[in-house]
Amino acid sequence: MQRQPPRALGHEPALDGVRGFAVLTVVVWHFGPIYNEGPLPWMRAGHLGVDLFFVLSGFLITALMLRERNETGVISFRGFYRRRVFRLLPALAVFLLGHLLFALTSDVESTLLSPGTELRNEIPSLLGAQFFVLNLLHHVWDFTITLGMSHLRSLSVEEQFYLVWPTVMVLVLSGRARPSRLISAAMSTTVALTAFGYTWDDQAMGIRLALSAAVALAVGVALESLRGRHRDLWISGLFLSIVAAVNLYRVGAYEGPLDLFGLYTGTLSRADQLVIGALLAVLWTGRWIPRRAPGIVTLGGWLVLLWAIWQKDFTTGFFPNGGWTVVALAGAAIIWGSLNAEGTAQGLLLSQGWLRSIGKVAYGLYLWHGLMLEVVEVHFDGQPLWIRAVLGLGSSAAITAASWHYLEKPMLAFKRPKAERNAPAAAAA
């Protein structure tokens, strides 16, 4: 039986609501330690809002690339990176300028420019953030990320994923037999070597070799079997293999050379969340799963995510030992439930105008909220909590709105090639 044509992702209002929920979770989580002198008791893992962002980003980027290839036959690298540059860099550059001005005019011990020795912290922080390597630079250069900028490590993780993902998609979508076999072999070898180096490193060499060879064989056979059935299934198998490799690496690294913080800010150790979003895009676009998620799946996703936010402290071993993958799967269920969600409870909740509005400006709010909370804390220290809260959250909202209306929104037009931007005017003429 001939399969139906692939689905094309259009605008889904509820996804704006997902984005709004994610950024609000992060803002509230950061509010606690800054103003409440410790995490809020009912939000022990508000950083999971970033995890939801990762899954959503992986889904959207992959779904849009699949739509482009299905419609045009190619994935335009130039178009992809053009869209990323005009969406991300202008707002980031203005934020970093604002951060530098704050640093030059504030006197916060051991975090900013005064005393003068702290200049060595501000400059690498600015450079690392601007070039999306802050998470890497922090580990190889002896400096402390300055106040109000540490959250940009997550942005670096996401942009490093964007750097390589179009190439990955072009390779796996090529459809040619020989490259596909080589990719299957490379992936099975990667999973096996990861297990050899990180999971079974306490076993005797002979056992490690035997187990790794068995894993390589099993993964290779499974991938080749899927490749013979359908390209989408093979790609899904590749993505699941990446998720498995990340978990094998993370478990071993957590018990060995890396601490929890190093894993949290590492691109390789967080890649599974972005790839799980990409997996959802492949399955949904290719019609391997229903257009709308079953209600029980969406409900389960919300219960798992909210439970983790409420109960799972960041410092526990839950997250590196599979917890981040569990949360990513919950996020994927929520995102799936947000597609074609009209008439559902989730669609009604996530399509609320105020939540969608926050979702649309989520990038600017994510950039600015930490700095504005810190600015208020520095200059209004000693004031009642409610005054600091109003000033911190109010200033964050104001500068986010200004960033959106006067910078980010105008820049959206430049995401399209000049010929497309001029098309409406030419037609009108």
What's a concise summary of this model?
The protein is mostly helical.
What does this structure look like?
There is one protein chain. With 429 residues, the chain is an all-alpha fold. It has one domain. Helix content is 75%, strand content 0%. Helix 1 (13-35) packs parallel to helix 16 and helix 6 crosses helix 11 (267-285). The longest helix is centred in the first third of the chain and has 29 residues, at 77-105. It is globular. The termini are far apart. Residues 109-117 and 422-429 have low confidence and may be disordered.
Summary tags:
single chain, 429 residues, mainly alpha, 18 helices, 75% helix, globular, disordered C terminus
How would the blueprint of this fold be written?
Blueprint: H1 13-35, H2 48-72, H3 77-105, H4 119-130, H5 134-140, H6 152-172, H7 177-199, H8 205-229, H9 231-254, H10 260-264, H11 267-285, H12 295-311, H13 319-337, H14 345-350, H15 353-360, H16 362-379, H17 385-412, H18 418-428
Helix pairs in contact: 1-2, 1-15, 1-16, 2-6, 2-11, 2-13, 3-4, 3-6, 3-16, 3-17, 4-5, 6-11, 7-8, 7-9, 8-9, 9-11, 9-13, 11-13, 12-13, 16-17
